[in-house]
Each structure stands twice: as structure tokens, then as C-alpha cells.
Amino acid sequence: CFSDDIVVLDSHSTDRTVEVAEQHENVRVFKRPFDNEYNQRTYGIHEIPYKHKWLYICDADEWVTPELSHEINQAITSDAPHVAYLLGYANHFMGKWLKHGGIESVRLMRLVRTDCVHYEKRATNIHLAAQGSVGELRNRFQHFSFRKGLSAWFTKHNEYAYCEAIE
């Protein structure tokens, strides 16, 4: 674990998320009913009091490698002028890393100073915007969004496509 302040923002889940999180003394749980991604994520970065000025945003289906953890700690303790960092990710599908197809070059802003960022208001696929310099980390986080099978994957991405088409 690379932080002494881990926060779980739970949308009143019915699995064991809260129970598991509360077993760890350095984990705090906040609950908020989910209405939409923009409001949920905005609440997460601006309404929760954090112990530190830097926040690493990690979804439940993502993992931080030891190499990325080390790089994050170096970035936030250095004198770099950045207020946020972009990271690549290793997207896993059916047990394998998808190394090709275009998604391997996508970078997401996940390491931020909460006082210097905000989410763009969109129906889906929202992104952070920074007021200041943005750097880039070399190591990737691991993303396991396809663990529920192909049917769930198609349903999820059809919903994303529908929302994007409306916008």
C-alpha cells in the first residue's frame, strides 16, 4: 500500500465492499447514492476531506503495480511544477493484456491535486481538466474491466456509445 489515507466512495453497493474496506484501519468509507458519473466523481474529488493534497483516483476494477506505486511517490515528493499526471493503462481482456488496437496509447489523468482539477460535465466518459501543468508517468495501472464476460462488456459499451451519440 502506498498511502496511509485510502478512501472508498461507495454508492450503497450490495456486495461486501464496505465490509472489506472497513477491515483496514487506513481505509475510510464514504457513501453517496449514485445518480450519474459526473456528480459521483465530482463529489469524490471536492467533497471528501483528504489527508494529503495529492489524490490517486483508482476505480474498483484497477490495480496499481509496485513500480507505479514507487513512481507516484517520487512524483508527488519531487519539486516538479505539475498539478496532475497522466497515466497509461494495461487493459486486460479474458486474462490477457490487450497490447494493440489503439487503446494502449490512451492516457488518463489519475494523479491530481484536488484543488487544481475538475471534471468536465458530460453524460458519460467524463475527463478531468487541470488548471496548471500536467506531467506524464511512465508506468501503467492495470485495468480489469472485462471480468463479467462478453455480454456485460457489450451492454456496457453499447450504453457508452448511446450516451456519446446523444452528446
Can you walk through the features of this model?
The chain is an alpha/beta fold and 167 residues long. The chain is built from four helices and eleven strands. A hairpin with an 8-residue loop joins strand 8 (117-119) and strand 9 (128-130). The mean pLDDT is 90.
Short key terms for the protein model shown above:
11 strands, seven-stranded mixed sheet, alpha/beta, two-stranded parallel ribbon, 167 residues
Give a topology summary.
Blueprint: E1 6-10, H1 17-21, E2 27-31, H2 37-46, E3 54-56, E4 62-63, H3 66-77, E5 82-93, E6 96-97, E7 107-113, E8 117-119, E9 128-130, E10 133-136, E11 141-143, H4 150-166
Parallel strand pairs: 1-2, 5-10, 5-11
Antiparallel strand pairs: 3-7, 4-11, 5-6, 5-7, 8-9
Radius of gyration: 16 Å
Terminal-residue CA separation = 39 Å
Query: Low-confidence spans: pLDDT under 50, at least 5 residues?
Result: none
The portion of residues forming beta strands comes to 25-35%
The total count of helices amounts to 4
Indicate the mean pLDDT.
Answer: 90
Strand tally is 11
Class inferred from helices and paired strands: alpha/beta
| Overall shape | globular
How many strands, which pairing sense, and closed or not: the largest β-sheet? 7 strands, mixed
Could you give the order of the helices and strands? EHEHEEHEEEEEEEH
- Percent of residues in helices comes to 25-40%
